[in-house]
Write a structure and sequence with these properties.
Length: 277
């Protein structure tokens, strides 16, 4: 993170410090040295969404029910829209949206981290690390767009619905999509009528799940795929995606906070402090 001098770095940190949203992890302080910069956040108890979905076997609490997953998607989408509204000068207002950068508070609500750091990072460092720089337009044309974060949101939606870890690089052959973790390819190669059986994480569907909820799951998969369109002109605008997500229903609101939406508790702690060289 040596792209800017101290004055510009501090100005950008002040800008981030003024941001306030229920689904953003606030920046409370920072430390600056020429060789090292630290961003300081509050402690968050329930680790990351990636850990919840994929980590450490059965000791880890894993999301089960549709209401809880939809609540997560809505929280992430709202926070991303907030960043777009508050930081319109940035091409990629988040830049690094992925499940390991989403922490979960004591109510298992999502808190976005590592956001809006592209302006203070080296170009080469950004290209290597930032998820938005893996978008199709960046790979093909060497430039990001306002819809690069939308692509990241689409990948995240598919990850939450399938329970599968994503790959941000396309497979060498279309038939290798599923094996390589290419979620877009895996969904695209499966007929829509088989999505609930072959694409959706079986742990998400409760026994006796009503048909309306299943229909909403299919709608969210379609939203995720629309966000992942390789052609920027065909990819949805963030506003369209957020509005479509908000229309989805996940059952009673309290279901998303119901203890039965989760397995047993997570072992261990997660600190939200971020160190960037």
């Amino acid at each position: 993170m040596n792209r800017v001098g101290k004055e510009d770095f501090e100005e950008h940190m002040r800008r981030l410090g003024r941001l306030s949203h229920p689904n953003l992890l606030p920046l409370i302080s920072y430390y600056y040295r020429k060789e090292e910069k630290l961003l300081i956040h509050d402690y968050v108890p329930n680790k990351s969404l990636a850990h919840l979905l994929h980590g450490e076997g059965r000791r880890v609490k894993k999301l089960v029910h549709w209401p809880a997953r939809l609540k997560l998607v809505k929280g992430v989408a709202r926070a991303l829209q907030y960043l777009y509204d508050e930081l319109p000068m940035l091409t990629v207002p988040h830049g690094h949206l992925k499940s390991s950068n989403i922490l979960l508070n004591d109510r298992f609500e999502p808190l976005l981290t590592d956001y809006s750091l592209v302006p203070v990072m080296n170009q080469s460092h950004s290209a290597q690390l930032m998820v938005a720089f893996k978008s199709p337009e960046r790979r093909q044309f060497g430039r990001s767009s306002k819809k690069s974060d939308v692509w990241c949101l689409g990948i995240l939606i598919l990850e939450i619905l399938t329970g599968r870890p994503p790959s941000y690089d396309p497979p060498p052959q279309p038939e290798a999509a599923t094996a390589n973790g290419d979620l877009v390819g895996a969904v695209a190669s499966t007929p829509e009528g088989e999505w609930l059986e072959k694409v959706v994480d079986a742990d998400m569907i409760r026994k006796g799940e009503d048909e309306e909820s299943k229909g909403e799951m299919v709608k969210l998969i379609k939203i995720g795929m629309a966000c992942c369109e390789a052609a920027v002109d065909s990819r949805w605008e963030l506003k369209t995606a957020v509005e479509s997500i908000e229309e989805l229903k996940g059952g009673k609101e309290e279901d998303a906070n119901d203890e039965h939406s989760f397995y047993s508790s997570i072992d261990g702690d997660e600190f939200a402090s971020v160190a960037i060289n």
